Amino acid sequence: MDPNLQLDASRGDVVKAIRQLAENLGRTPSSMEMDASGEFSTAVAQRLFGSWNRALRAAGFEPRMRRNISEPILLGEIDRVVEKLGYVPSSNEFEKHSRFSLGPYWRNFGNWEDSVEAAGHEPRRSIETTKPSNLYYGPNWPRQRSRALERDNHCCQTPGCDFTTQSHLERFGCDLSVHHIVPIRAYVDEEGVLDYKQANTLDNLVTVCQSHHRLWEQISPLRLDLRPK
Ligand SMILES: [Zn+2]
């Protein structure tokens, strides 16, 4: 690569190079991939934009890798994706919906199954052996979930917290979660069949924000709000 060309590079050139690389790779490029096969080095992007992530954003991409994400945040993301999908996803599926890549999970927990267990969910392998085609949270989950959100005015129900769908989206990049007060596993019988109607009653559901979801998980089956039952 000609170093003079690099000095002449404009922001527009770098944006174009990032988009080209993304097209070749079929995904958001990492800084290492940029250095290996991009038209410009990451250093050029850093010089022109201040950081690699800012250059990525200027090219219209959301940086996925964040360093030193704390364990509660990583586990909270698993909660969020499980809750959103209504079942425990495979690692591939998780990556499609997660704001984080699998890298930090492997570093912190060893593998995907152990990450899922650390978050308090049952890894998919055992669910698949019992009920292959069943949605983990049951077929009524999407409807009950939106009914709970509506009842709670799309607002975290933790006392003193005023996250709404809109402010939560701005802060965390995702919607509020709907938490099971009595955990879903309490409704699974010996044969592995979930009584989803009981598990997903509105009384058992509460809208929570990302910051408070793990707290609710920790005190489960108690509740943090004072809503009369
Ligand atoms: Zn909250």
Features:
mainly alpha, two-stranded antiparallel ribbon, about 50% helix, elongated, binds zinc ion, HNH_repeat, HNH nuclease, HNH_nuc
Outline the structure in words.
The protein has a two-stranded antiparallel sheet. The radius of gyration is 21 Å and the shape is elongated. 52% of the residues lie in helices and 3% in strands. It is built from 14 helices and two strands, in the order H-H-H-H-H-H-H-H-H-H-H-H-E-H-E-H. It folds into three domains: 56 residues; 68 residues, no CATH class; 93 residues, no CATH class. With 229 residues, it is mainly alpha-helical. Bound molecules: zinc ion. This is HNH nuclease. It comes from Haloferax gibbonsii (strain ATCC 33959 / DSM 4427 / JCM 8863 / NBRC 102184 / NCIMB 2188 / Ma 2.38). It holds the Pfam family HNH_repeat.
Could you report the average pLDDT, rounded to the nearest whole number? Answer: 84
Total strand segments: 2
Q: What is the global morphology?
A: elongated
Order of helices and strands: HHHHHHHHHHHHEHEH
